[in-house]
Structures are given as structure tokens and as C-alpha cells.
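Pasting as-is:
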Amino acid sequence: MSWPLKTAKTLGAIAAGAFVYATGIEPYAIEIVRMELLCPHLPRSFDGFSVLQISDLHMRRFGKRERKIARIAKSLTPDIIALTGDLIHTPAGLQPFLRMCEDFKASSGIYAIYGNSEHKNGIVPGDLARSLTTHGIEALLNRSATIKRGAGTIYVSGVDDPVTHHDDLEAALDGIPAEDFKLLLMHSPDNIPEAVHRNVDLVLSGHTHGGQIRLPIIGPPLTRSFLGRRLNSGHYSGNRLRGLVGKQPGRTQLYVSRGVGISGLALRFLCRPEVALITLRSL
């Protein structure tokens, strides 16, 4: 066998193996990302407050991936669960989604916002909000919820989908004292400059899927973010966030989830799905 033919067969085998991995293994290899964030404006009574973020489920059915998410959520004991948009892909995904959420438990509530998926494919946003409420999930669509612990208060705010221009951050933050701690759920991270301007303490986003496909050295070719490939996933604060928004971010921190589901190409490569368990720490 000639060297070119051997090389072609080897490359073909590698490509086939990568395809099998990207379609049948990695999409189900859900990572629990655990982190602690120091938040200067967090009341002392909320030190240790935990948030389980689940994003971009794109649910169509209750399958292998969804059963695993339910088991993970059941095994954890967060104070709140934050569902940061693109929860269902079509109306057929609603009942499987609600079935999965039956195993979700959080001592201070379960909160959801919409992504662009909730505004297309025949989904009726108002009907969805009512279904969420009926099942104990509070839809924060351009509004806030208040959580008290001891003498301290924090606000969990949410905006409707920024991608389809249904968001209204001013309405979501209306009435919140400037110095109080604000946790903002915002599906796309592209509006992070506005959150910085309004002194939001922590923004939880998704939408990018971390690129969904990440290439060695190159990283993600596409992130769905107008701010470029640098805004793909993970924690952004200080100089890392300043490089994106063009000014000092002050007290604002951003976490962008790689999400759970898939969109477009039905694969993930070197970009595992995730849920994030974020513990907040006061000074």
C-alpha cells in the first residue's frame, strides 16, 4: 500500500472517530462547573448563597441528556436555580421540560428567562409563562424578584430575549436601590455593556454554546456573539471584561454558560455541555 493511500485511510479513520465522538459521546458528557465568586456588594447574610445555572436546553423530548440533567439537579442543593433561556426548541418540548423540572429543588426559588427559541417555532410566550408559573417556576421577563436572608436583601432580575429585542433592562431593574446586589439573568451576553453601565453585580448568560465546536489552538470558529470569539464561555471580570466592553467594568461580573443542548449541527466537539454551580462570597 502506498504512503498517500495509508495516510488517506488514517485520516479517514480519525475523522470517522471524531464524528462518532462529537455526535454520540460528548453531547452527553455533561460537566458540573463549580466556582466561587467574590462579590463586594453581597450582604454578609448571603455569604455561601449558591446558584445552579442551566442554559440552552433546546428541549424536544425527555431523552438521555435530559434524564442526566434531572439526576444532576436532584443531587445538588442550590439556593436558586437559574434557567437562562432557549429552554424548549418547539412546543413539543414543553411537557418533557416540565417533567424534567419535577426533580428540580431550590430553597429560594426557580427562575427562568426566555431566549430566542421561546419566540419562534410556534411557541406562544404568554402560554409558556403561565405553564412555568403553574409548575413553580417564576418567569422573570423584564422584572425582578426579591430574596431576603436575615437583614440582607438581593434582587434576581431577568430580561426577555435580547436577540429578538424583547429585553428591557430598565424595566427589569426598576425600583432596585443602586447599591443593592443585583443578579441578572440575560440570555445573550451581548448587552453586557448596558449591564455594566447600570452597576449589575453578576450577569448569567448563555446563547453562545461555547461555540459548540472548538478546534485545537484556534478555539471556537463561531460563538453567535456580536462581541466576537473572545466572548464564548466562562467567567469574565476585571481586565478580561474590560477588553470586551471598552471600559472598566467596576463591580460587574459575567458568566457565560456553554449550555446543555445543541443547535444547528447536532454535535459538540471539545466543548462539553455544562451546568454551573456558582457560590457567592461576600467580603
